[in-house]
Design the sequence.
């Protein structure tokens, strides 16, 4: 009896350590999202150009992608030309979330380089971004025809990534 | 140059602590070679080396030496000097060095405080822990790494969240608690190795556990207070993995304090006490691993690096599995035949321990569950949130509160006279009725959590005060005096519980949109959005809104800010808080929706201060108790 009791903690911790090693190995760098197949979160934020107060209902053209961007984010400039291309794709709408940014600088940048977004949600404190579990910019979410989040992609959106992860949900 | 010297000090400390950790090994091979007399000088040296190393890092921050990568990433030329200094522990590398330094300080304190060290290998086990953590720092997390040849001009900046007074003291105090748990761990392992787990061991260990627990309590309390006013959400506890990583060792340490009392006074539960001291330290190591490996993500998470995770898990494995192997094989103590009944103090303490440990395990399970889920369900992620923990904690809180009181009234062995409990029940009931009536008159509503917290408050408070059975007033006070520490700590839990229950019952929260000059009424208070201005500081620019709040009794202004930190591109909310004994008025500035139209979050928090007041009482009580225990045993 005594033996079992005093060895029980050892057994429990050996199992714990073994599983932790497995978890550590499993820990794929791909950031999954808790939100996959969930509704897009509710929000109340102003648009980047201050023209109106936006909520979830304003994201009306399904399917759409929503891109988290900022002027201080260098990778965002890399994916910018591709977003401009997507703007002309009739099968998909592109919205933006301007993340932790300065309003004036953000508008300036869009003026200079072109605006790929139907509109951008201004989220200086990252309120919506927190609900989306955003780690940083850029990140892109795809919301399917059924209104549920299908894909989360961190890092630059390139034609290759688009082919591989996004297109299967679009037509 | 001096930076390299700092690194050299760290390496020297690593080498020397390794040598010191070999003492028991040498001794076990050759019974004639007792080198324990070397341990103390080695600890002094290691302490001095890590002190110098840490001082040099702090110095590098003070002179803005951005050629050091760690300084460049965590400080900024415009940062006020006190934040530059506290930026030393603003990220992974520096906080690790601080942890090591504090562990060395504990070790130094240990060899100064303990009288008979001639056969004591505790110091050597502490040196092993120190060695592994220095090696971890040197090989994976070197804070002295240079950023050459290109030296940045002004540094990235300290995370604005951490530019705050509470943050300057929160990590050192919390780490003092964490590292302090290494002392009872090392004492237990060395006693196991030398077959000297006995009542004397329990008496020597107890004040150390109390002291570490005091720091742990204080550190967690400051963290909670900081989150409350700095994160701008108005919450005081979030069940974040990192909070759990501090809370679980705390539960284990509290269980250990109580089981050591039984081991010391009655000789029971010795195995259990040893196991708890191992568990308490393991949980603090596990917490470190979970936070630093990036295996769990949270508000507190530091830079992620898989290599660090493997190294830390290795350290965890070595100490935890190693000590548990010693525990299960070395341990020849038969579990003593009971010798106590269900109406004894021992039994009360046993139940208290079981409650605390199961609660700790359940919280740890909740923290790890997302990992398990992800592994089983093919990469799908899930988070275990508030509802799980909130549901979990209520039965345990009730159980622990009642056990606390009942055990106070029980005697060792067997309690002959239980009539006092009847008196307690009557007094408590009357007192409870009075408090409920007052609450109802003041707040005009009663909820499950407010009633429950009043029940627990009453029973703990009266239980503690009535447990001194002396009738004469002078003797009664004398008895309270001898138990000041534990009484304060226990009463602290009463205030804590009351605060928790009332905050969740009688708080108000609204998300609103106001234009300048508009008034919003919440629970009899008029919040008027008076004005908003722009302001510029060396390290940030801010929008600053002013409210005038009026109610029946008085009126006051509240300022809330939103700051933009250009060097790190972060926006921070500074909540406007008006603290009072009964209520906190709490306003956070949201977004500008149109010219002079802003969104706000307005909150009224009832008795929220009592939470930290209770926790502070626990801290003070624990420290007093630790001091008393040191004095009693050393006399």
Sequence:
């Amino acid at each position: 009896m005594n033996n079992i009791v005093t060895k029980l903690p050892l057994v429990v911790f050996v199992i714990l350590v073994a599983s932790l090693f497995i978890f550590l190995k499993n820990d794929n760098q791909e950031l999954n999202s808790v939100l996959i197949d969930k509704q897009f979160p509710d929000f109340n934020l102003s648009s980047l150009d201050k023209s109106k107060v936006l909520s979830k209902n304003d994201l009306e053209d399904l399917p759409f992608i929503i891109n988290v961007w900022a002027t201080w984010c260098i990778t965002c400039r890399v994916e910018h030309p591709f977003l401009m291309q997507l703007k002309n794709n009739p099968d998909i709408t592109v919205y933006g979330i301007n993340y932790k940014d300065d309003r004036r600088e953000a508008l300036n940048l869009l003026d200079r380089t072109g605006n790929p977004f139907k509109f951008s949600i201004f989220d200086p404190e990252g309120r919506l971004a927190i609900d989306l579990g955003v780690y940083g910019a850029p990140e892109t979410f795809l919301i399917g025809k059924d209104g549920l989040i299908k894909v989360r992609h961190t890092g630059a959106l390139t034609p290759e990534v688009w082919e591989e992860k996004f297109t299967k949900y679009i037509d | 140059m001096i930076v390299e010297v700092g690194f050299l000090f760290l390496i020297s400390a690593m080498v020397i602590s390794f040598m010191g950790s070999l003492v028991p090994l040498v001794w076990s091979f050759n019974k004639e070679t007792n080198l324990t007399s070397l341990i103390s000088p080695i600890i002094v040296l290691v302490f001095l080396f890590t002190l110098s190393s840490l001082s040099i890092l702090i110095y590098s921050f003070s002179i803005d030496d951005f050629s050091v990568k760690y300084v460049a990433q965590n400080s900024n030329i415009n940062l006020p000097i006190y934040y530059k200094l506290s930026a030393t522990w603003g990220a992974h590398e520096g906080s690790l060095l601080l942890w090591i330094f504090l562990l060395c300080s504990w070790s130094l304190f240990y060899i100064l405080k303990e009288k008979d060290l001639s056969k004591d290998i505790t110091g050597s086990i502490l040196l092993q822990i120190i060695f592994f953590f220095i090696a971890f720092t040197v090989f994976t997390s070197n804070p002295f790494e240079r950023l050459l040849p290109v030296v940045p001009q002004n540094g990235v900046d300290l995370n604005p969240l951490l530019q705050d007074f509470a943050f300057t003291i929160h990590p050192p105090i919390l780490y003092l608690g964490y590292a302090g748990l290494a002392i009872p761990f090392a004492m237990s392992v060395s006693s196991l190795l030398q077959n000297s787990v006995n009542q004397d061991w329990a008496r020597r260990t107890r004040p150390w556990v109390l002291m570490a627990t005091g720091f742990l309590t204080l550190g967690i309390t400051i963290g909670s207070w900081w989150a409350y006013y700095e994160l701008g959400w108005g919450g005081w506890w979030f069940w974040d993995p990192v909070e759990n990583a501090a809370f679980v060792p705390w539960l284990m340490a509290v269980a250990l304090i109580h089981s050591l009392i039984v081991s010391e006074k009655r000789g029971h539960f010795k195995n259990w006490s040893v196991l708890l001291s191992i568990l308490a330290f393991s949980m603090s190591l596990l917490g470190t691993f979970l936070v630093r490996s990036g295996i769990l993500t949270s508000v507190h998470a530091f830079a992620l690096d898989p290599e660090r995770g493997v190294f830390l898990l290795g350290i965890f494995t070595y100490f935890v599995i190693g000590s548990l192997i010693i525990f299960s094989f070395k341990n020849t103590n038969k579990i003593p035949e009971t010798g106590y009944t269900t109406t004894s103090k021992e039994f009360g303490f046993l139940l208290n321990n079981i409650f605390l440990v199961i609660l700790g395990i359940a919280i740890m399970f909740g923290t790890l569950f997302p990992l398990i889920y992800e592994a089983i369900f093919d990469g799908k992620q899930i988070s275990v949130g508030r509802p799980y923990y909130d549901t979990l904690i209520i039965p345990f809180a009730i159980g622990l509160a009642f056990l606390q009181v009942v055990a106070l009234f029980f005697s060792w062995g067997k309690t002959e006279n239980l009539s006092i409990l009847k008196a307690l029940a009557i007094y408590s009931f009357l007192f409870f009725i009075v408090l409920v009536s007052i609450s109802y008159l003041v707040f005009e509503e009663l909820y499950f959590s407010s009633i429950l917290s009043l029940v627990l408050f009453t029973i703990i408070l009266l239980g503690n005060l009535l447990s001194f059975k002396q009738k004469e007033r002078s003797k009664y006070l004398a008895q309270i005096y001898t138990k000041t520490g534990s009484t304060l700590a226990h009463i602290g839990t009463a205030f804590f519980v009351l605060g928790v229950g009332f905050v969740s019952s009688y708080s108000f929260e609204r998300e609103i949109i106001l234009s300048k000059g508009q008034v919003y009424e919440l629970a009899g208070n008029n919040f008027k959005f008076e004005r908003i201005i722009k302001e510029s500081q060396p390290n940030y620019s801010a929008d600053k809104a002013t409210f005038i709040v009026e109610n029946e009794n008085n009126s006051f202004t509240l300022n809330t800010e939103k700051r933009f930190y250009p060097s790190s591109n972060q926006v921070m909310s500074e909540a406007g808080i008006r603290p009072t004994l009964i209520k906190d008025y709490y306003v956070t500035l949201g977004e500008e929706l149109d010219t002079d139209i802003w969104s706000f979050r307005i909150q009224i928090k009832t008795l929220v201060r009592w939470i930290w007041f209770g926790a502070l009482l626990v801290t003070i009580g624990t420290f007093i108790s630790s001091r008393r225990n040191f004095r009693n045993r050393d006399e």
User: Anything to note?
Assistant: The CA atoms of residues 51 and 141 of chain A lie 24 Å apart. The mean pLDDT of chain A is 83. Residues 31-169 of chain A form a domain with the Glutaredoxin fold (CATH 3.40.30.10).
